[in-house]
Amino acid sequence: MTDATTPSSVPAMTPLSGKGSLLVQDARTRKRNAAEKRFKAYGVVAISIGMLMLIILVFNIISRGTGAFQQTFVTLEVPLLAEKLDKKGNRDPNDLRKVSTFGYAPLLRTAFEDKIAQNGIETELSPKAMAGILSAGAPAQLRDFVLADPSMIGTTQQFEFLASSRVDGYLKGRVSRDSIANDKNISAEQLDFVDKLIEGGSIEKRFNLAFIIGADSSDARPEAAGMGVSMIGSFFMMLVVLALALPIGVAASIYLEEFAPKNWLTDIIEVNISNLAAVPSIVFGILGLAVFINYMHLPTSAPLVGGLVLTLMTLPTIIISTRASLKAVPPSIRDAALGVGASKMQSVFHHVLPLAAPGILTGTIIGLAQALGETAPLLLIGMVGFIASNPPDSIASGLLDPNSAMPAQIYEWAKRADPAFYERAWGGIIILLVFLITMNTIAVILRRRFERRW
Amino acid sequence: MALSLTGYVVLAVLVLTIAAFFAAKSKAKSTANGDVRLLHSLPNYYGYNAAMFTAVPALGIMLIWLLAQPMMIENSVFKLIPERIVEEGSSRGLVMSDVRRVAEGLDIAVAQGAITDTEADNIRSEARDIRALLGEVGVALGSDVEPEVLFAAQEYRTLSSVGAFWMAVVVLGVAFIGAAVSIVVSKADFRARNTVERGALALLILAASLAIMTTVGIVLSMLFESINFFRLHSWTDFFFGGSWAPNFRGDSDLSILPLLWGTLYISVIALLVAVPIGLFAAIYLSEYAGPKVRSAAKPLLEILAGIPTIVYGLFALLTVGPALVSIFGRGDQGLLGVEWMSGATAVLTAGLVMGIMLIPFVSSLSDDIINAVPQAMRDGSFGLGATQSETIRQVVLPAALPGIVGAVLLAASRAIGETMIVVLGAGAIAKFSLNPLEAMTTITTRIVSQLTGDTDFASPETLVAFALGLTLFVLTLGLNVLALYIVRKYREQYE
Amino acid sequence: MNDMRILERDVDANAIKIAAKGVQVYYGDTHAIKDVDVDIQDKTVTAFIGPSGCGKSTFLRCLNRMNDTIDVARVEGDIRIDGEDIYDKAVDPVQLRAKVGMVFQKPNPFPKSIFDNVAYGPRIHGLAKNKSDLDDIVERALRRAAIWNEVKDRLAAPGTGLSGGQQQRLCIARAVATEPEVLLMDEPCSALDPIATAQVEELIDELRQNYSVVIVTHSMQQAARVSQKTAFFHLGNLVEYGETGQIFTNPEDPRTESYITGRIG
To answer: Name one Pfam family in it (chain A) (predicted).
Structure first.
């Protein structure tokens, strides 16, 4: 016996015979079970709060953003009066160009006067106030039309103009007669006028493709703003990220997973990578500003710079997932290749890498999705604060010309402090989320499809 | 112009590379008299070898040259600028950016044919209005060009084009030598594969060390500018001062403490939201939920983590903020009939939304950690008649505590470094206040505001952003290292 | 000397503590326990033996409803302790497990101090009126588990710092501290070295005075050394159940004989 204690010296621990029946819960057990229920309820509550937040968020985005995909248009017959547009009567494009948008504004007033005369609408509004329900871009639209085809001068053409954002808001329920009490841009009389035009079928709300493919607009014309150009900016950034982060990330992972000796240097690299993954994104923006713009003098606001910054940010994600998929390839595959006389490099590139490819691809897509939604570093390299109005015309211009990106465009709209732009920001979020959901779905499908169990 | 020359050089190197590939391949084959089996390596390896020796050294030199040249040119050009201008124009960086802009303008003027190349090198500001000239070609200048600046700009142009010329010569020369040597050695018994593989390994190592270079880049870029900042502004005010009041006419109060207070206050609120909810969600998912609930709820929660922060920012500004105002503000029209909150941006707004964002972060990390607690622990407790909640509270959670602490620290580091939510939801007023319904500002918000818009990299008001960034980096890095260390130790314990 | 005990075993007919009838256990689609009937006596050590995967541990875990914690497990049939059906809806497994303690294959002390490990059960079941009462309970339990002398000076040290044999005795002390009426032991010595095994076996023999002990073991020698009754399981069936001496010296079923003589298992 190793223990000096003998049974006789131990006070007997008699089972409590009076412990009671198992079929009856004693008071303490009831209390404990109540505590158990409460504790479980906390968990249910926590999960429910999480779900509730998700639902509120999604509901919020959809209910506020879908409006951006519809826009109010005013149909109007505009007489393209020759005496206003071409006083010399020679249709010389250079002379026509000299007529500014101010020269076209009177045509719109005339058009409205004709309209009320034809439809018998009674209003006390001046023709100028009537034209005020149109977007400020309407004269420019007329001018572009005339310059594109000067032979139209003298005819009367039917146009569809964007309504001003207030009128658009009125049709979408965002603007009411109460809310415009102090608004200088629109009056209750104008809304009455709009009501009459709606009855006459001249004003209607339609799907607005321009929001998806169009360019951003100035502060005064939220009705014309679109996501298209910033989408192209995001596209070029993703191109840079894909072209750099994927090869570099895969190369780094192959080295660390397959070749690296176990020493302090590799340890440092590994710790470094996991820390880089947790560095705040804004710090990468500072790096981009200091190194790419201030030191290397790469152009400000260029998708190339944005892409470089996002590449550095995405690398850790890609490296971590690539290493996981390389690790999942069993050593027997490597041994088999080495066994037939392949070099280590050949065994990795011919056998391990192809087997790990689906996992690498999944990780890359997820990394790209992360990069696509990232905003903070883009603020510092100047991808906000201007109007991304011109789509790039070549790859070089796509990479080097100033542009915005989807999240930066959303931020820009959010800053403009106008409910009409807020609607566009929510709409932009819908577009951004559609991209993210698509990418993540592809990643999930890839994972399911190619997941291999060894 | 320099860019186009660079482009041509790259193109030439690439053409040379492809040529070397085929030349070496056929050379190797011919030394084996067409019998591929006599070669040490597969024919393509001889090609790769030649391509590698042609492209890699040449492009490497080019890259270093492109990185180093601007710095060297700036150093030599700067000597041409008299002290007088630097003092008036407030700093070296500002003057140098003028010089670059003038040089760039001259380039454009030449390209557009407004002046000839020789004219550009020789015009004097006395003879011609440079500002007007450059204005015509689309380069707007803020002020008239000083003769010294013009001279420096012309020197800058000359040096740049000379540099570019020599770069082209050197790079192409190196490429030629590389191609020639590698083609010559491509004989049957040359171990091409081994060389290529060593080269490939070097590339792999280079890729792996990019992570370190990024970190070094982050630290150095912020360190240099921070040093510049501390030359212009006292470090005691930065670290120990009590107020943040940047003033672009100079003489600003730039202390990090009020910003740090705002940052930490918001982070604490975020953690108060995220940690209990996230932890209980993780406990429920790992200990109570059946496989069905788990497989549905876990990905749904994780969607919250995949939503970009700009979305949360907008949510804070336009939904949560106004909702809070309608509860705590608006006087008699509000829900509580009080007037405690005046605007949508507030510490509470940002904190709540950030908390929502962090819920999945805390829950999925804690879930992993709770799952790592061995089942034997739970069995031991159940076997003694403990209820599930007693087992969780008294056995599982204490065992998982270090890991959970690590997860919370990681979440804290996230919260401190988060930008978009606070930029949109927290406000811009730096102050020490305990009232969560007031707007306050954070380190990240100030970095954004000091570095966007028209920035002057010579004023402390701009440079302070780098010192803030460095502090933020050190702070989050410290938290991350600590958290990862704790989590790693924790995992080892149960492996 | 231990081997002699088989013969001098007192086989007095104690009262029946646990009565199992027609017990079936399914793990998902697998039928793990097939129609087992067994009566376990009070103040007796009953050993369950059989080859790995024969269902002996599964059956043991039915006796304190530990199988409830496994989602896919399903138990049918009738198991009564002191005449009460433990699978009755009114029975709280928590109360049941306080009455039927369990010691596991691998020592699993909680990552707490030695004292807190032993005090855990009494605390959750509210057995101690005050601190000194709790101290007494812990000391008594540690003495019963024959480990008091080894740990009395370091009760605040973590339980995970003990050696394997000490850890297992700590776990036994932990189980004993709740004052159970039945003690289930699932291969308690399989992770221990021979010396520690001897200590634990000695302890089991002493525990018999107060408890009904059920021990699962894959070691026939151990079953022979510590038990008075033995049940032999094979492929989910209870093949034979009887006096330990009887089973080991004169088994009725040829499968039991094959196993004991080492031909199966």
So the answer is: DUF3333
Q: Indicate the residue of C94, C108, C124 with minimum beta-carbon distance to B380.
A: C108
DSSP string, A140-178: HHHHHHHHH-GGGTTSEEEEEEEBPHHHHHHHTTS--TT
Q: Residue B413: what are its φ and ψ, rounded to 5°?
A: -65, -40
In Å, how far are B3, B101, B157 from B105, measured between CA atoms?
A: 15, 6, 11
DSSP string of B52-64?
A: HHHHHHHHHHHHH
pLDDT band at C202 (very low <50, low <70, confident <90, very high): confident
Query: Can you give the pLDDT at residue A13?
Result: 44
Of B382, B394, B398, the CB nearest to C97: B382
Predicted ipTM > 0.95: no
Q: Quick one: average pLDDT of B175-184? A: 88
| Whole-number Å distance between alpha carbons of C61 and C101 | 11
Q: How confident is the model at residue C2 (pLDDT cuts 50, 70, 90)?
A: very low
Q: Which domain holds residue A428?
A: 228-451
Contact yes or no for B398 and C104 at CB 8 A? no
Per-residue pLDDT for B377 more than 60? yes
- Strands (DSSP E) found in B201-335: 244-245, 253-254
Block residue for tokens 């995970």? C160
> CB–CB of A287 and B217 under 8 A?
yes
Looking at the predicted structure, is the pLDDT value of residue C15 above 80? yes
Contact check, Cβ <8 Å, C69/B379: yes
Between β-strands C84-85 and C73-81, what pairing exists: parallel, antiparallel or unpaired?
antiparallel
CA distance A450 to A452: 6
Whether residue B385 and residue C95 make contact (CB cut-off 8 A), yes or no, is yes
Cα nearest neighbour of B383 on chain C: C102
With 0-12 CB in 10 A as exposed, 13-18 as middle and 19+ as buried, what is A38?
Answer: exposed
B389/A39 touch (CB, cutoff 8 Å), yes or no: yes
The one-character DSSP state at A179 is T
Mutation for testing the C interface, residue in B384, B489, B494 having most C CBs under 10 Å: B384
Do A441 and A302 fall within a single domain? yes
Alpha carbon of A45: minimum distance to chain C alpha carbons (Å)? 23
SS3 content of chain C, % helix, strand, coil (to 5): 40, 25, 35
Q: Which pLDDT belongs to residue C6?
A: 45
What is the pLDDT at residue B495? 60
Q: Kindly determine whether residue B417 and residue A287, on different chains, have CB atoms separated by under 8 Å.
A: no
Q: How far, CA to CA in Å, does A297 sit from each of A293, B81, B246?
A: 5, 21, 27
Minimum-distance CB partner of C71 among B290, B390, B395: B290
Average pLDDT, chain B: 84
pLDDT of residue A226: 86
- Check whether B219 has a pLDDT greater than 50: yes
Select the CATH number that applies to the domain covering C15-109+181-260 from these four: 2.60.120.200, 3.40.630.10, 3.40.50.720, 3.40.50.300. 3.40.50.300
Share of chain A above pLDDT 70, in %: 94
If asked whether residues A156 and A252 sit together in one domain, one would say no
| Residue ranges of chain A with per-residue pLDDT less than 70 | 1-20, 385-389, 452-454
User: In terms of CA atoms, which chain B residue is nearest residue A274?
Assistant: B484
Residue bearing the bigger pLDDT, A13 or B186? B186
Please tell us whether the domain made up of B244-494 is placed in CATH 1.10.3720.10.
yes
pTM, two decimals, is 0.83
Q: Which two tokens stand for residue C70?
A: 């496994």
Q: Domain map of chain B by residue range?
A: 5-190, 244-494
In this predicted model, what pLDDT tens digit does every residue of B406-431 receive, in sequence order? 999 999 999 999 999 999 988 888 88
Q: Measured between beta carbons, which residues in chain B are less than 8 angstroms from residue C184?
A: 383
Neighbours of chain C (3+ CB pairs under 8 A): A, B
Check: CB of residue A236 under 8 Å from CB of residue A225. no
